[in-house]
C-alpha cells in the first residue's frame, strides 16, 4: 500500500516577465510552470488546484469570507517512514486545532489565594490627596 503526504501552496498571484512571454496569460503560465517545476524538483507531484474559503477578520469585530487559490501536491512516503509516522502521530493528528482545555472549576468551599488581587485602600495605605488652597473668590 502506497502512502502519500500532501502540501498546499498559494498559487502565484502575478505573472513573471520574460522575453518569450508577451501576454498576461503567457506571463502567468510561466509563473505557474516555475512553481510546478520547483516543487517537482523536491519530489512533489502536482495533484490539483483548489479555490477554498477562509473566514478572516475585518476591522475590530467584523468577519468576511476570502477565497484563496491553492496548488495541492503529493509525494509518496516510503513504507518505513509511513509506519514510523503512524506510530509517532498523536491520536488527534488533524490539522484542525483541538478545543482549548478549560481550567478546573474552583469549589465554593475551597479557599482562594488572593495575594495577587488588588487590595482596597485603607486610611493607613491610601495615598495623600493634594488639595488646592488658591481660592480667588
Secondary structure elements and pairings:
Elements (H helix, E strand, L loop, with lengths): L2 E8 L13 H18 L3 E14 L3 E16 L1 H10 L49
Antiparallel strand pairs: 1-3, 2-3
Protein name: DUF4177 domain-containing protein
Write a structural description.
It is a single chain. The protein has 137 residues and is of the alpha+beta class. It has a domain at 3-88. Helix content is 20%, strand content 28%. It has 2 helices and 3 strands; from the N terminus they run βαββα. The protein has helices at 24-41, 79-88, and strands at residues 3-10, 45-58, 62-77. The protein has a 3-stranded antiparallel sheet. Strand 2 and strand 3 form a beta hairpin. The longest helix is centred in the first third of the chain and has 18 residues, at 24-41. The protein is flat and about 45 Å long. The protein starts with a strand and ends in a 49-residue tail after the last helix. The model has no long low-confidence stretch (mean pLDDT 76).
Amino acid at each position: 500500500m502506497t502512502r502519500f503526504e500532501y502540501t498546499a501552496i498559494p498559487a502565484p498571484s502575478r505573472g513573471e516577465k520574460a522575453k518569450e512571454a508577451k501576454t498576461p496569460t503567457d506571463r502567468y503560465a510561466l509563473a505557474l510552470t516555475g512553481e510546478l517545476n520547483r516543487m517537482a524538483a523536491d519530489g512533489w507531484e502536482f495533484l490539483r488546484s483548489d479555490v477554498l474559503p477562509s473566514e478572516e477578520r475585518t476591522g475590530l469585530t467584523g468577519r468576511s469570507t476570502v477565497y484563496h487559490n491553492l496548488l495541492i501536491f503529493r509525494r509518496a512516503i516510503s513504507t518505513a517512514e509511513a509506519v514510523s509516522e503512524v506510530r509517532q502521530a498523536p491520536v488527534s493528528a488533524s490539522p484542525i486545532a483541538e478545543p482549548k482545555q478549560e481550567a478546573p472549576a474552583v469549589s465554593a468551599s475551597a479557599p482562594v489565594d488572593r495575594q495577587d488581587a488588588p487590595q482596597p485602600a485603607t486610611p493607613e495605605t491610601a495615598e495623600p490627596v493634594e488639595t488646592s488652597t488658591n481660592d480667588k473668590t
